TrEMBL record:
This is Ribokinase. The active site is at D248 (proton acceptor). Homodimer. Keywords: ATP-binding, Carbohydrate metabolism, Cytoplasm, Kinase, Magnesium, Metal-binding, Nucleotide-binding, Potassium, Transferase. Residues 1-290 form the Carbohydrate kinase PfkB domain. Substrate binds at N9, A10, D11, G37, K38, G39, A40, N41, E137, D248. The gene is rbsK. Its cofactor is Mg(2+).
Length: 297
């Protein structure tokens, strides 16, 4: 079982010829509304792979909240842990120009109201989870409460996105900490070395039991603090169409396979296939593969 604790957002996307500057109004395409948010993305990705998956999160009592609940349920995610109300559903307002560059405003909305008390209330769901996967689009206090509430035999997968300074006890609970290059550099600051192997060793020095660094088209690097040297895992070569949500698919796949008993390098080898499959189609949740498709890549 995979339990995801995290955000759910409606992504509101408008294509524009040129992104507006201060005080400027531009006309854009019809609005496209997509289910998103890192927590909901991970939950949908894990369920599509065949994992028994639940989400703990919060949406508003509004049309965007219903869209998110519908997409989670359609993918087979257990939504008993998704709380409704307290604020409008989180949204990301995204403008994209013809070159693919975008400008994004995120309104966290209900995600910012997911509280430590909500984690306490999710105790029965947590008690059943083998792997718990979370990110930082919910309050850091809530992530810290989750760390304190984890059953002793549950494994925590944390993707610190958007990057923020992490308390030592949160870092120490990660197994693994999953970062892209940008997040690795943020956490390491001036201590970042020149190679991903050096980043991995630097990150392990901060306390997590293991570290996985995603490297885009180059795949990923897995470093288990218990078993030694970082291992590079190549990605299958694919034609990238849209990388939105690829990191979330990667992390969900990693969490699922770790929960099934794979070692870190083995789970990473599966996760790069899922990440690569997710970049071959448009969108985030719409692009997530079944396990069969990921293996066939
Ligand atoms: P993020 O999307 O969080 O910035 P990455 O760009 O490192 O993270 O991508 C996450 C994962 O998605 C990679 O480890 C890889 O599996 C897959 N991926 C991303 N871009 C590509 C690509 N161009 N070709 C193949 N796989 C990719």
């Amino acid at each position: 079982d995979v339990l995801v604790v995290g955000s759910a957002n409606a992504d509101l996307v408008i294509g524009v010829e040129r992104r507006p500057g201060a005080g400027e109004t531009v006309l854009g395409s019809d609005l496209a509304t997509h289910p998103g948010g890192k927590g909901a993305n991970q939950a949908v990705a894990a369920a599509r792979l065949g994992a028994r998956t639940g989400l703990v999160g919060r949406v508003g009592e509004d049309a965007h909240g219903r869209l998110l609940l519908d997409s989670l349920r359609a993918a087979g995610v257990d939504t008993a842990g998704v709380l409704v109300g307290g604020a409008p559903t989180g949204v990301a307002v995204i403008t994209v120009d013809p070159s693919g560059d975008n400008s994004i405003v995120v309104s966290p909305g209900a995600n910012a109201r997911l509280s430590p008390g909500d984690i306490a209330a999710a105790g029965p769901l947590l008690a059943r989870a083998r792997v718990v996967s979370t990110q930082l689009e919910i309050p850091l206090d809530t992530v810290a409460a989750l760390v304190d509430a984890l059953p002793p035999d549950a494994r925590l997968v944390l993707n610190p996105s958007p990057p923020a300074p992490l308390p030592d006890r949160v870092l120490a609970a990660c197994d693994p900490l999953v970062v892209n290059e940008h997040e690795a550099r943020f956490i390491l600051g001036d201590a970042a070395g020149g190679t991903p192997e050096e980043w991995a060793r630097g990150l392990l020095g901060l306390g997590p039991r293991s570290v996985v660094i995603t490297l885009g088209a180059a795949g990923a690097l897995a470093a288990d603090g218990r078993t030694g040297e970082p291992v590079r895992v190549a990605s299958p070569a694919v034609t990238a169409v849209d990388t939105t949500g690829a990191g979330d698919a990667f992390t969900a796949a990693l969490a699922w396979r770790l929960g099934r008993g794979d070692d870190l390098a083995g789970a990473t080898g599966f996760a790069v296939r899922v990440g690569a499959a997710a970049v071959t189609a448009r969108g985030a949740q719409e692009s997530y593969p079944t396990a069969e498709r990921a293996v066939a890549l």
